[in-house]
Specification:
444 residues; alpha+beta; two-stranded antiparallel sheet; 51% helix
């Protein structure tokens, strides 16, 4: 098998080989190349020790030298070059207490997580596949290298990675590997929130975000996202729905593009439904106020998983407004843009569309037409530069001071009043008209 290695990877491998060392591209880049997917990065494994790697290349960075990893810089690109190693005992379900360097490639491949990630390649030897990675690629399986209980006991994050790879590659998890996941899922409690966040986002950004349900069935979400389990089996006996809350959420996630903000929003948008569910005397379910509760739950989850403030702000706002329904008129859309935010409004429309598409056929066409009309009005508002924010007003606080108003809260209140006026009547966004309005209000 021939894999087309990037020129810079060939340069690194050849340089190491010229000096008497073994060197191979290894791991995910080999897997993705075989699958005709573009690798995100290229990792290299070698028999050379870190100090020898540093001596052979002009520009290097010690990114993980205690574990044998040196980043070799070729131009602006960095390539991780790691010495063959054998991991010592794992004491925290994540990191080996110590590593031992080895001259044996097979020993290095043996410590890796899954067979499809334990293959190496260079142009001289070609594919090195000791543990049946090609066979598992051909059979579309996620299988641990060796004993899955050992692999997951070494590093509990591999448990979540198994589901993530399953979602990214559309491969089921092999039976013994899945059994080990079920048994050892509780050890995910030992993994940092930051690492769980990274794997969760990769799962959600895959072609199959709905495979978070596999994580539930394997006992993973019970540890990292118990709020998901609370939605499973919560029926929605209402004309607007055909799935339970979790099923609706799975469908909604599939109906938005691969965008972190959108996928997180759809994951979290109905988290408040289980606790807000009521059933009337006719047997119809209601979830009044669930958007606000979902917003609070979303904020709690995002903070727990250490998401950045910008992500928390955007996702919680979209969750809050995901069920905000209005008649598609220019005035209503301007007001919605003001409330939700101009930047977030296209996201809001995408969230509404995904939510509707994941509901029952009841009134679906009418709902979709409403969203389409809102999108058209939104675009017209942008094109005509109608004011929906204070920044777009034709007057400023400085103008109000010149009219005789005193500095302080009164200025802010008046600007907000003028914005409300302009949102209702866009033609009023004229400096002379707004100044006349202020003068009349102040009796000047």
């Amino acid at each position: 098998m021939k894999i087309e290695l990037p020129r810079k990877v060939i340069m690194i491998v050849n340089n190491l080989q010229l000096h008497g060392y073994e060197a191979f591209a290894v791991g995910g880049c080999v897997r993705d190349s075989i699958l005709c997917r573009k690798p995100e990065d290229w990792d290299i494994t070698t028999s050379a020790r870190p100090e020898e790697v540093k001596r052979l290349f002009r520009r290097t960075v010690d990114t993980g030298i205690e574990h044998g990893t040196v980043t070799v810089m070729i131009g602006k690109d960095g390539f991780e070059v790691t010495t063959y190693r054998v991991d010592g005992l794992y004491e925290d379900n994540r990191h080996p207490k110590e590593v031992t360097f080895t001259a044996n490639l097979e020993e290095d491949l043996k410590r890796r997580d899954f067979t499809i990630n334990a293959m190496a390649y260079n142009d001289e030897v070609r594919l090195v596949d000791v543990f049946g990675g090609m066979q598992d690629l051909n059979h579309h399986l996620i299988r641990c290298v060796g004993d899955p209980m050992e692999r997951f006991s070494e590093d509990a994050l591999r448990i979540l990675r198994a589901v993530r790879f399953s979602a990214q590659l559309s491969f089921p998890i092999e039976g013994e590997t899945a059994d080990a996941v079920r048994k050892l899922a509780p050890t995910l409690n030992n993994i940092s929130a930051e690492r769980i966040q990274v794997e969760l986002v990769k799962l959600l950004m895959s072609d199959h975000p709905e495979l978070i349900q596999d994580a539930c069935e394997l006992g993973i979400t019970r540890v990292i996202l118990p709020e998901w389990d609370a939605m499973v089996g919560v029926e929605q006996h209402t004309p607007h729905h055909k799935y339970d809350v979790a099923g609706h959420t799975l469908c909604a996630m599939k109906n938005v593009k691969k965008d972190k903000i959108l996928r997180l929003t759809m994951l979290l948008h109905d988290m408040g439904k289980p606790q807000m569910k009521t059933t009337d005397e006719s047997g119809v379910d209601h979830f009044k106020g669930h958007a606000l509760v979902s917003e609070e739950i979303a904020r709690k989850i995002l903070r727990r998983l250490k998401f950045d403030n910008d992500t928390v702000k955007k996702v919680t706002r979209l969750v809050c407004y995901h069920d905000y329904r209005i008649e598609a008129t220019p005035r209503n859309v301007r007001r919605a843009m003001n409330r939700i935010g101009v930047e977030l409004f296209p996201y809001y429309l995408a969230v509404r569309m995904a939510d509707v598409k994941a509901q029952s056929p009841y009134q679906r066409r009418k709902k979709i037409e409403n969203i389409v009309e809102m999108r058209e009005i939104y675009q017209e508002i942008l094109i005509s530069d109608q004011a929906v924010t204070l920044r777009q007003l034709s007057v400023s606080g400085k103008d109000l001071l010149q009219l005789g108003m005193r500095p302080g809260k009164q200025i802010g209140d008046m600007l907000n009043e003028l914005l409300e006026l302009v949102i209702d009547e866009p033609e009023m966004n004229d400096k002379d008209k707004l100044c006349s309005y202020v003068k009349e209000k102040l009796g000047i």
